[in-house]
Structure formats: C-alpha cells, structure tokens
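User: Design a sequence. Structure:
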C-alpha cells in the first residue's frame, strides 16, 4: 500500500512542476508583449506621436488665432430647399475677413443654423484672402473701378482725415482691409454679393509705384518725378512709400 501511495503521489508531484513550468514562460511572454506594446504598438510611442501631432495642430491653431483677424458679418439670409417631404429652411451668411494691414477676403456659406453658417463663411474667407497695396498704410494708391454682374463701384484715394465714405458691404471691406481714407460710390445694384465682388475686382487691380517701377525697369523716383515734382521731392516721396 505504501508503494502504491508513493507511486500515485509521484505523477501528481511530476505534473505540478510540469504544470508550473509553463506558467513562468507565459508570464514572461506576457510581460514581453506588454513591454513591446509599450515601446512600439502599445499606447506608449503611439500616444507620444499622437501628442506631437496634437502639438503641431495646436501650434497651427495658435498661429491662426494670434493673427487677430477682423471679421465682419455683411449679410445673412434665410433660404429654403424644396424636398419630397416639404421645405427645408437654412441660412446663408456673407462674411468679410481682414487683418487691417492690407489683406482681406470674403466668403459665403449655407447651413441649417446661423452660427454654423457664419463659421463656414469665415473659414472660406480666410482661405481666399488677397493682398492690396496701400499708400502710407491708410488709403489706396490710385482711383479704380470694379464691375461684377449688375454691380459697378468706383473707388478713389483720399487725403488724410477724409474717413471711409462708403456704405453697407463696401464699408465692411475697407474697415477689414485697414483703409482709413477712401471715397466710394456704388452704381447699378444694392445686392451685397455683387457689391462685394465688384469691390474686390477694383481692389485686385490696384498697383503700387514700386511694382510698376519693377515691371518697367525704372526707379520709383523717376515715375513720381514725371508729375512736375523736383528730383528731391520725388526721391523723398519714393522713400516714404509704404506698401
């Protein structure tokens, strides 16, 4: 009986070590996978890379936010779309965005709610900003005309202290652009969309003496001196030009 007991106990004792030995490698493998996962496919490095992407995105957002853009809501209109079940109402927004230093853009968008439409229009305006050369940083270099559809606008440079002689959508454009003295006139339509596009047509045709001199291969003083001014006055005026 003692022999049978010892024999019966031996397999059990042998199985326990065999059963225990595979557990240690499995635990090591589990720790190994965890370590590898932490270094590679786990949350460690992937989370780190994700954090860097977030940082880069945050920097871009900070740069956009640090630009201090001037946003003007020009017009908002309720629109409807006829569908099978009836009509769906939404809103269309027209927004002008500028930095007050010679860059301006406009955008329009539609959405089901007013804030969303304004946000989409603002984002569209930021993507389509154009640079307009300014004289002394306060007015236009020369007179101009713009045309779009039935809208026609005339813009004229003005001396200091004149102010912005413009109304409605055109005033929003010049305030966002950073113009302090200008005289304008809109003829033909009061549609804000056509007025804005006609105004931008006139602004994109603006040129500065510096760009004209470079295109013609001359000096700025030579161009300014053709109006009867002396060479000293022309050179002084050329040095005072700020785009």
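Assistant: Done.
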């Amino acid at each position: 009986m003692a022999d049978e007991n010892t024999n019966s106990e031996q397999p059990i004792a042998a199985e326990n070590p065999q059963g225990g030995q595979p557990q240690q490698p499995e635990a090591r493998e589990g720790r190994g996978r965890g370590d590898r996962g932490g270094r590679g496919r786990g949350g460690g490095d992937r989370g780190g890379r994700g954090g860097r992407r977030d940082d880069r995105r945050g920097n871009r957002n900070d740069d956009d936010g640090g630009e201090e853009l001037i946003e003007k809501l020009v017009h908002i209109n309720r629109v409807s779309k006829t569908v099978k079940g009836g009509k769906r109402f939404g809103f269309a927004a027209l927004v002008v965005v500028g930095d007050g230093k010679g860059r301006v853009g406009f955008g329009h968008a539609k959405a089901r709610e007013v804030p969303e439409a304004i946000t989409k229009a603002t984002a569209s305006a930021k993507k389509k900003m154009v640079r307009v050369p300014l004289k002394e940083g306060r007015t236009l270099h020369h007179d101009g005309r713009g045309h779009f559809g039935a809208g026609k606008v005339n813009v004229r440079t003005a001396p200091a202290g004149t102010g912005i002689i413009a109304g409605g959508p055109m005033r929003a454009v010049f305030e966002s652009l950073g113009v302090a003295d200008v005289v304008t006139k809109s003829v033909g339509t009061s549609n804000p969309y056509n007025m804005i596009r006609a105004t931008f047509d006139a602004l994109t045709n603006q040129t500065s003496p510096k760009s004209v001199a470079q295109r013609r291969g001359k000096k700025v003083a030579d161009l300014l001196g053709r109006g009867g001014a002396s060479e000293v006055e022309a050179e002084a005026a050329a040095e005072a030009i700020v785009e």
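The chain has three domains: 2-62, 70-131, 144-240. Confidence is low (pLDDT under 50) at residues 4-20, 24-30, 32-63.
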